[in-house]
């Protein structure tokens, strides 16, 4: 199916299928001779059963020896990036085969492993952080960081799952693509919580307003992500625009934070610096993803390694770690200076 040798194998498998069905039908017909007229067998049911058995056998044979495909040999529902010419997985209608494929080299290999390892890393960090005694880290601090950890783990986990099983079937691919995009929205939403909490630590009303707006934007992004057309390849720039807009909405509270804390305050400069670096990583990754660079410039040269989606994954992972470092420094600053000394002030 995917190469010259695969085409021959496919023809042989089709022949095997036909022979199995034919033999089963013949055996069923022979059995009917021994039944009286009132005890006739259901020929349709027998034929359907024979076809199902044959299909099961053929699927087993295909899954045991599949090889990577050319883009043009993929079914329409698996054709996403036409600048990646070769190295695609064929449809693998078995979850076991899909998960075994993570140990094979193909266009999704790096996409799978970058976010699988990232997910495991954030699970380990979250467990270490949340299991610290309350005397070291208070419950409310754990809840705030927990929102970020949950967003990161869900995003990276759903991404890993999507890239692993998207070749299973059209239904499974579409389902997990929606979960993948919902995960991105949850990462952005979870990332806002700690820095807004610590940035407006002594200003209750702005904190509540910004967190409420973030939740509203996050829910809107999730609802858009569940739209069927949102996951189609032609809507790639729109997807990038939705998440970039959501992320860039943080400019407003960032400016407010700079006004409240002072633009030339060392702490605010450091905090905003990490925030800006995280934003740049996310934006650059999203732009490369939307433009499909570098494979757009060199079709077929980045099929397996360093294509735009892989770079996007690395930038997302890097942005998440940068953000964790930044909010950790903000939290340490708040612990160092102690309780708020100034009363709550209105929104600027």
Automatic annotation (TrEMBL):
Binding-site list for Zn(2+): 163, 309, 313
Location of this chain's protein in the cell: Membrane
Mode of membrane association: Multi-pass membrane protein
Keywords (A to Z) from UniProt: Membrane, Metal-binding, Transmembrane, Transmembrane helix, Zinc
Any GO MF annotation of the entry: metal ion binding
GO BP terms: adiponectin-activated signaling pathway
Residues annotated as transmembrane: 112-131, 143-163, 183-201, 208-227, 239-260, 272-292, 304-324
Listed Pfam families: HlyIII (PF03006)
Entry's Gene Ontology cellular component terms: plasma membrane
Family the UniProt entry places it in: Belongs to the ADIPOR family.
Name of this protein: Adiponectin receptor protein
């Amino acid at each position: 199916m995917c190469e010259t040798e695969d085409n021959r194998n496919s023809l042989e498998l089709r022949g095997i299928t036909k022979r199995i069905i034919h033999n089963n039908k013949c055996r069923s017909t022979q059995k009917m001779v021994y039944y009286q007229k009132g005890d006739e067998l259901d020929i349709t049911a027998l034929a359907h059963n024979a076809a199902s058995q044959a299909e099961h056998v053929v699927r087993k044979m295909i899954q045991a020896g599949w090889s990577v495909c050319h883009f043009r040999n993929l079914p329409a529902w698996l054709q996403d990036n036409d600048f990646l010419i070769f190295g695609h997985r064929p449809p693998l209608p078995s979850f076991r085969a899909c998960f075994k494929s993570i140990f094979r080299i193909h266009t999704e290999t790096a996409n799978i492993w970058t976010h699988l390892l990232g997910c495991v890393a954030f699970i380990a960090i979250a467990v270490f952080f949340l299991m610290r005694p309350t005397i070291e880290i208070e419950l409310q601090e754990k809840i705030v960081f927990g929102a970020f950890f949950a967003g990161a783990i869900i995003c990276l986990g759903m991404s890993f799952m999507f890239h692993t099983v998207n070749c299973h079937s059209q239904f499974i691919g579409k389902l997990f693509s929606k979960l993948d995009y919902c995960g991105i929205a949850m990462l952005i939403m979870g990332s806002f919580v700690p820095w807004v909490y610590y940035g407006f630590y002594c200003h209750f009303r702005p904190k509540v307003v910004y967190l409420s707006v973030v939740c509203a934007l996050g829910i809107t992004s999730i609802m858009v992500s569940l739209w069927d057309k949102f996951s189609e390849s032609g809507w790639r720039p729109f997807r990038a625009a939705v998440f970039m807009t959501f992320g860039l909405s943080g400019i407003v509270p960032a400016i407010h934070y700079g006004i409240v804390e002072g633009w030339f305050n060392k702490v605010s400069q450091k905090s905003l610096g990490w925030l800006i670096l995280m934003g740049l990583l996310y934006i650059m990754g999203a732009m490369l993803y939307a433009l499909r660079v570098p494979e757009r410039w060199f079709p077929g040269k980045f099929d397996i390694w360093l294509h735009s989606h892989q770079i996007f994954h690395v930038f997302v992972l890097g942005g998440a770690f940068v953000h964790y470092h930044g909010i950790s420094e903000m939290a340490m600053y708040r612990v160092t200076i102690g309780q708020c000394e100034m009363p709550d002030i209105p929104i600027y």
